[in-house]
Design goal:
Helices cover 80% and strands 0% of the residues. It is mainly alpha-helical and 268 residues long. The protein has a single domain, classed as ABC transporter involved in vitamin B12 uptake, BtuC, CATH 1.10.3470. Helix 3 packs parallel to helix 5.
């Protein structure tokens, strides 16, 4: 594996994996404590429509997917805030429509012969320098927003009614969390694909949650665990020549299993 580090695409993959892992740890923690896992899954699959439109228009994939994901997040935020009794129906509908839009626009693209599986299951080895800039910008923005507005986000995440009584704009911060989740989902798709992205946003977070006594600590541990799982997944992928995205998730699941066994038989 050491000799592989001399290749630019391996270096880019490692940097991308760490950037996305830290972002996923931060946003994944917010997704879990706000009980948004299903919503994030809906955004992930809906954003496939943005991929199809981007390919059809010939614009950067990240740009098309990000814009589509943000619009989806705004719609989902409005639905969940105003029609809570119909959330499952609307999310399922947007999920299906987004995927369908993506497929149709890709079919309409003349001469397109790209590998659609890379968007479904990830293609971290194809990360470019421009992709890294986008990922770094997202991570820096996420850290700044969460750091500067930590108290408000913490209040909204754990007790939205109390936060509202304190004069905090719950609707704004709830929507902000969903938008950050949407953008994180888009970059995470490059690492593990939209099919597996929810696992990346939940498995490390579950372990970190059990070891944390604060949201801040949970975010740090989530980013650390996610980075370790990603690096180990890349090593396994390189050694056995298998899909990197699937390897990362399987390593994460294996480590989760070890943690659960540790909890059950060692701690108890």
């Amino acid at each position: 594996m050491i000799e592989a580090l001399s290749y630019d695409f391996i270096q880019n993959a490692l940097i991308a994996g760490i950037l996305v892992s830290i972002a996923s740890g931060i946003i994944g923690s917010l997704i879990v404590v706000n009980r948004m896992v299903f919503l994030a899954g809906g955004i992930a699959h809906t954003s496939y429509g943005g991929i199809g439109i981007a390919i059809f228009l010939g614009i950067p994939i990240f740009l098309g997917a990000s814009l589509f994901a943000v619009v989806s997040a705004l719609i989902i935020a409005s639905i969940t805030l105003n029609h809570r009794d119909r959330v499952d129906t609307f999310i399922g509908l947007m999920w299906a429509i987004g995927m369908a839009v993506g497929v149709v626009f890709i079919d309409l693209t003349d001469g397109y012969k790209g590998d659609l599986m890379s968007y479904l299951f990830g293609s971290i080895l194809s990360v470019s320098s421009n992709d890294l800039y986008y990922m770094a910008l997202l991570l820096i923005s996420t850290i700044l927003i969460v750091t500067l507005r930590y108290r408000e986000i913490l209040s909204v995440s754990y007790d939205s009614e109390y936060a509202q009584l304190r004069g905090i704009n719950v609707r704004f911060y709830y929507t902000l969390i969903l938008i950050l989740s949407a953008l994180t989902v888009v970059v995470a798709m490059k690492v593990v694909g939209l099919i597996l992205v929810i696992a990346l946003l939940t498995i490390p977070i579950y372990i970190a949650e059990k070891l944390s006594d604060s949201l801040y600590k949970m975010m740090i541990l989530s980013g650390l665990f996610s980075s370790i799982f990603t690096i180990l997944g890349l090593i396994v992928s390189y050694i056995y020549n298998v899909s990197s995205g699937a390897s990362i998730i399987l390593i994460s699941a294996f480590c989760l299993s070890l943690f659960l066994l540790y909890q059950k038989y060692i701690i108890d």
